[in-house]
Amino acid sequence: MAKSLSPREEQHASPDVRLLEEENRRLKERLNSYSIIFERSLDAIVILNKNGEFVDVNEAACKLFEMDKFSLVGRSFSSFLELVPPDILLFQRSMLQKFGSFSDELLIKLPDGKVKHVEFSMKKDVFDEFDLVMMRDVSAHKALERERIIHEFLFRDVFNRAVDSIVIFDEFGRFIDVNPAFSLSLNLEKEKLLNLSFQQFVARECAEEFARLLAEMKEKGTAKGELSLIRPDGTVKMFELTATSNVYSGFYMAIMRDVTERKNMEVKLQKSEERFRAIFEQAHEAILIWDDFGYILNANPAASRTFELPLNLLVRRNLLDFVDYGEEKVKRIFSEFRRKGEIRDELTFHMPNGEDKQLEFTMKKGAIDGYHLTIFRNVSERRKIERELRESEQKFRSIFDHAMDGILLWDREHRIIDANPIACDIFAAAKEQLLGRTVGDCVPDRARRQLNKLLAQCERAGEASGEVEFSDEWKGRVVEFSLKKEVIPGVGMMMLRDVTERKEMELQLRKSDTLNVVGELAAGIAHEIRNPMTALKGFIQLLQGSIDGDYSMYFNVIMSELKRIESIITEFLVLAKPQAVQYKQNDICKIMQDTIDLISAQAMMHNVQIIADFERALPPVYCEPNQLKQVFINILKNAIEVMPKGGDITVRIARAGCHVRISITDQGCGIPKDKIKKLGEPFYTTKERGTGLGLMVSYKIIEEHQGKIDVESEVGVGTTFHITLPIERTEREDDDDD
């Protein structure tokens, strides 16, 4: 139990307790006041320990670091300073240690990556072992300051680089700043100009105009006008001026364009207007006058119409605005113009209304008082017509080159000036070989006579047509010609068509018609003759047995001739109606060998030797052997008969793709080439007592076998019959009909 104080002790202790309580109360009030100031301060307040860790922060600090107090307390301050170079941090710590307090700026980086620019003041050991830091976010201020610096830099850059003069002056007209262009215009250094004013350069007649500009600028904030300034050397410079107030630190700014040259040009043009205006104004071609920079100083009404702009707007434009200056052709033209002083060319110009025009122009450097003159002519329509002509020509050329018939164009002397590929093929010559030659020189001699007749007829009547047969060296071709004189002035046209195949088809058709007629005739003749022939043969045989005496020789002759007549009738019947035959696979070499064996006796009687040359392992041929034997006998008999003095007959059989080729060659007198075509026609023969029916039947049989017979012959050397037969027979529609 505590010892209680005596009344006297309580009396002595009571004043001390009261003093302590009073002191404690004052301290609490003071601490509360400090706490209110700490929490409500607009600046961030941070208390750090010796390790640089947050011990306490106010509300402004939480907003600055965008974290609550609980998250900040205990966190290292250096974790926010990763953007500050280490040497800067080291310097700041050393200054704090040396002086006990320090103020500077820092960049802090928040956990979310946001960066803030802060001003700070730091005091060492404010609360025993704790340091006090006060910070203020100046990021917005720094951004504004940076933007102001950029704007000022940009303004200064434009100010110094501007082509036009820029002057900063006060309300009394005194120069505050001028750009290099203004110094150059007045031919004075900037340092000298800054001690002077506008009034010292303004021409007397412009003094009132300058006073008006100042008044208008003070009242409205902006003003426009013209001024003439007199340079120290006495020359006058004329400017277009636009002035604005309070744009630079409360001063005025004037942008001035030197129009001295333009004004002088206007004066000079006015002096020569009487001589030049009539031509200039009335000219049909567009005329522009422009300076070294491309600015148009004057233009005539035709130029206004050409460039689709009123004259007052056209004069303000730059010539380069109407072209693509980046194009190589444009650069080349202007480079050549600067080098030579004049040029004639054409370009595509872009009009303000979006239309493109092809303009032909002539440029002359320094043609009028040192300025350049350009005369334009609109050739858009002409170029359009030329383009259409080119397209039309391309269409004609396409038709000309791809026509199915040959086409030649010739001049009045019949010289070839153009030929399409088909014509070149018909003449068997390249186009370069034909051009420049006369038409007659391109054909053989025999054909030239026929062609010259057609040309003469064309000259008389204006047109002609006909067929020309080329000589043997041209493989006996027939060409159909159609001539037209003066299809265009001075040019004639010749159409050519190779009708050789058509002629051959017509010949085949005629042969076929003849065969039909002969067949019908043969059927009638055979029917009418065979009946009396049967009676004759019967009665002759009866007479032969009943007549005495040695008349056997007469009977033999009569029977022989009757058999010959019967043979001819049989051949007639083959022509009249094909016999019902059965085709099957047969060895063609065996059929030929049997035929040779059959006719060898007759060959030996005429001193003829038959030489067989058969290819081995030939496939069987789908045929009727008896009919083929008849064909082989006919051809071999003819070969024997055309060699009365004897000789060799060579028979070769070889494979030719999907066909078998039989070649029978004799050493007879040969057949002229103009007669070869007639072989196989009814009643055509080269023998004295021949009927021509043998070959006719042979051609018919080979045709029924879907083969063909080709004849090669040379007069005095011999003849070869080539028989080509398919290995496999293909069914035809007429086969089924039969």
TrEMBL record:
Record-annotated PAC domain positions: 223-271
Broad class of enzyme this protein falls into: transferase
Catalytic activity: ATP + protein L-histidine = ADP + protein N-phospho-L-histidine
GO biological process: regulation of DNA-templated transcription; sporulation resulting in formation of a cellular spore
Span of domain PAS: 30-87, 151-221, 272-323, 392-462
CDD domains the record matches: HATPase (cd00075), HisKA (cd00082), PAS (cd00130)
Pfam families: HATPase_c, HisKA, PAS, PAS_9
All residue ranges annotated as the Histidine kinase domain in the record: 524-729
Keywords noted in UniProt: ATP-binding, Kinase, Nucleotide-binding, Phosphoprotein, Sporulation, Transferase, Two-component regulatory system
EC number in record: 2.7.13.3
Membrane topology: Multi-pass membrane protein
GO cellular component, one term: plasma membrane
Compartments where located: Cell membrane
Domain of life the protein comes from: Bacteria
Molecular functions (GO terms): ATP binding; phosphorelay sensor kinase activity
NCBIfam families: sensory_box
Protein name: histidine kinase
Gene name of the encoded protein: kinE
